[in-house]
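We modelled the chain as a single entity of 909 amino acids. Its sequence is:
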Amino acid sequence: MRNKVLLLIAVMVFSLVFPTNLNVGYATENGDTDELDIAPSYYFIYYNGEKQDISLNKDVVLHLNGWTDDTQTSVQGYLSDRLGDHEVFSMNVGEEREQLSISDEDSILYRIAPSESYKAEQVEPVTFTDQTTVVTENDNGTSIEEIKTVDEYGTIVHNQGLTYYSTDENQQKTVITKEEYDALNLVTDPSSSEDAEETATPSEEVSEELPTEDKVEQEKDQDASLEKAETEESKSKEEPTTVMPKAEASRALKAAVVNPSINYSSYVEGIKWQLPVKDGELSGTSGQAKRLEAVKIFIENATYSGGVTYKTHVQGYGWMTEEKDGAISGAPGENKRMEAIQIELTGEMAKHYDVYYRLHVQTFGWLGWAKNGASAGTEGLSKRVEAVEIKLVEKGAKAPGSTDKSFITKPSVTYSTHVQTIGWQPNVADGEMSGTSGQAKRLEGIKIDLKNKPYGGSIEYSTHVQTIGWQNAVSNGELSGTSGQSKRLEGIRINLTGDMAKHYDIYYRVHAQSYGWLGWAKNGASAGTEGLSKRLEAIEIVLVEKGAKAPGSTSTSFVKKPTVTYSTHVQSKGWLSNVANGASSGTTGQSKRLEAIKIDLANTAFSGDIVYSTHIQGTGWVTNSSNGDISGTVGKSKRMEAIKISLTGDMAKYFDVYYRVHAQSYGWLGWAKNGMKAGTEGLSKRLEAIQIKLVPKGSGSSVSATKAFKKAKSVFLDPGHGGSDPGAMAGGYTEAGLNLAVAKKVEKLLKDRGYIVYMSRTSDTYLSLLDRSKKANELNPDIFVSIHHNSTGSGSTTASGIESYYYKYNPAYPSVINSDKHNDPNRVMKSTLLADLIQNEMISATDATNRGIDGETLAVLRETAVPATLLELGFINNTAERKKLVTSSYQNKLAKAIADGIEEYFERF
């Protein structure tokens, strides 16, 4: 029996040496096809390599960026929707439809065909044709045919796969199985088993043993005997046969026995199952950007017991269940890429052979050879396998090629920080936080390293340290910063080198004192702060494939102390050169006025402007200017008297602007900040110089408004009543009219004496009591004086004289808008003094009856925040007194007395 088996193997070898099958490639068409069980609608894109946009629905747009390479076998594209742009991917070019997911629920079908001009349309084919291609046709009547269904656009919409046929005695084709086809084509001209038995010799039964000199001689004799038998047999037949000479078959048999073969087939994107190849041949594609989705591997002519096991790493699934001996591993037809593979021999085969394998991987090309169950390919990088080669090698023999970098995993960046009072923290990796947040603890040192590098190169980093500045760069786990010196890290720079820098970007962001998490920096850019004395408290670092999106916002990753620059226009000198950051602009000791100013910001990491306004001689406060615009006048010989400067936007969140002025008669006044007034107002004093600086928010010295700004005393005059409220009336006169007449006379006198005067009304208009106090509080004068005339009501009266009131608290009348100040003892004291001084001056000037001063909870006195008094100048319904009250001369006496009383008050305060 053993002899029969061995001869059968020899005959099989014979059939391989003299094959009779013929490969044919022609096609036929059949208009009748079954209804397709697929959605027929798809996008047909004639593509010319230029950037194009295709709107897929109201939310999703497909962007085509161009060919991925010169082969024009795939197109680079990406999707955008309401969430923004998504990752770039490759789209296959070919005759078949491809599927593209546009959301978690929806997908589209498309076909891309190269074209000189661009056109994209959504088509719904209605005509389908079966095309049959004869793949193989053999002399024994067997054949293999492939059937594809195409539409009227020439697009393959369905591949029905391979069908195997044999021809019966009536010359009719009959469908058979693949196994039946293989059996029929295994041996084409077999020798009889009887011949095999006749030619068998004892030496064949021990052919598996290693040859000795005796056995070699024995084999030579055997071969000669076989040749002789063959010659005699050929003479006894009329026609010669094509049977391999038996001696040659015997030698081929021995070769077949000792050389097993590893066979493998790949399921390729757009192609499906390829025909098997073996022993190091390429299965898959190269240069077509097509993914492998599955493999089948098996051993032929195994000389020992055992087989082959294998498993694949598949997109979305990870490592799949182990398969063996020709079973499918992967996810064919699911549009999921193979990313890696492990192959291993079993049984006795594993003792006598090593199995080597290597993969052609997206971006990387051919990787090194792996062997005996080791991983080959990539993991965690989303790279497709495009081709595979597998070889059997005698145990311990050399690998078929380089074994470097047979498997590439996603590289990892690891880092540890030294934290105030905590010390070195455990290593974290890939975007995790190292440090603390919300604990106000400084980072003092850092170590950073790379793991699982797929390429050569290193990671380098440098830190900006308190009182030291930027340190020299270190690399690969070395310490940057300090340890045990209590010095804060303030900034950091990190970059990759070598091939790592060609394939990856390194992103990093820091949590900085006062600012929180700043934006992401990358590839050596500075992150953190410089010149602001702000500690770093935490850091995150992550590797990203070259050119891919940042992990988050890259806005404001580094904050450097910004610069404020300014220039002044000086009397007889013109514009001076720019100065910055607290330097003086202008002159001192030369009695030269500032006439205009320009202020700007430089090196700002945050949004926002610098805004400023000046108080100009004869004009007052002018409209705001910003960012280098002129505020003031040029060529008009008008002095600047005061200035206000402020920041806006994020600049105002993180910085204070400080400024002070050198004023005529006063010299350098105190510092103002953030919109406060600096200089003088109402005193006709020129500004001669200015200094401006930026200070991190909240870190500057305290300021005093009274030291930074000197202003002429201001008085708010309130002529009572008006408009629809005439007040008391008698003898054809109204109280409102008399009140306004006296108030205007007081206004002129005070202004002539250098006071700033505000009026609640300047004409016969109505203003409510509360609105009078609101207006005064907004202007913030030094004092408030309300002018009224008295009355006892209807009819005439003999009551006469002048009286004045200050505020007296009454719980029955709570304050509406002045709850903080209405009953302030200091205000009440000053109000009482103000009323008394004016009352005394009026009595002295007019000899009127002195009705004295008293406290009342009158509305304007209660709701006004500054010292206030209400004056009753006389009784309008007393005929004799009215005759004086309506005369200009008596009004002048009253006005002067009021002004004198006010001036006397300001001499005390």
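As a brief sanity check on the tokenised model: The chain is about 20% helix and 40% strand. The two ends are 132 Å apart (CA to CA).
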